[in-house]
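Before a colleague's protein record goes any further, I have to sign it off. My question to you is simply how this chain folds and whether the tokens agree. I do not need a full report, just your reasoning and any doubts. This is what I was given:
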Amino acid sequence: MAGPDQHTWSSERIRRLEGLNERHYGIVQGLYKNDENLVKEYGAETVLSWRRSLRAKPPSLDESHPQYLPPPAPTTESLFDCQKRVCEAYQEHIVPALFDEKEELQHPPSERAVLVVAHSNTLRSLMAYLDDVDDDLVPKLHVPNSVPVLYFFDPETQAIVSQKLSSSAGMSSHARWLVSAQNYREVKKVIEGQQLTRAIFNFFDDGQGDLELTAAEIDRGLREFIRFAGDEALDCVTIAVTKKVAREMRPNESISRQEYEERALAAAMGLSNPDDDIEGIMDYI
């Protein structure tokens, strides 16, 4: 938490909140989500419900589990449980830091920025709260890795002031991804040049020309492209845009190359073009 100038930064302002911990996965805590034994034991549909539904949760762990911690640590959580404690942490700690504290933070609320660093489930829960996302859409809310997401507030009313933008999944959000001019150009170049589209769809191409892919296949095609081309092949924002398209697809939906490109371009257009105003955005942060 700091003011707009670099010299106002201090490590003493870092605050660690247990309420922002990653979601607890109960008896499967510590396992990888794509662990084959996990699916064999519980079934793919059950595992998917734990990950994607709001209220489903794995069985609780007990004291014999290597990941067990004594109370008040939870023994399992649904995404709803996680959201509840995240919202409590937001109201009790983050809101006062944004608007109320005077002695601890010398800068007025109009010059403050609070950086929240957490896991994707934690941030998804907070974004769902700030954007008033319907319960059934919360699991579809995409949180980009390594890409800051901005919310702008009126310091007087404490209300979010940025306009809501709609996505292909029917959700609307006040959030803005903080991207550089280079990020923006890379996204546009890769998507408009069809480089990524060809790579993803060619991985599954059967030569029929009318290929359609599911969300899981798009995600797999992206992973295979990165595996063969290397981690530096794609800008992190381009990867985030692709994952956003896949995550917002309906269950059992499949889309064509053209539909994928249209959705990816729509997601990219939702990024504010920072070429003209990047300095102003960075000054604010």
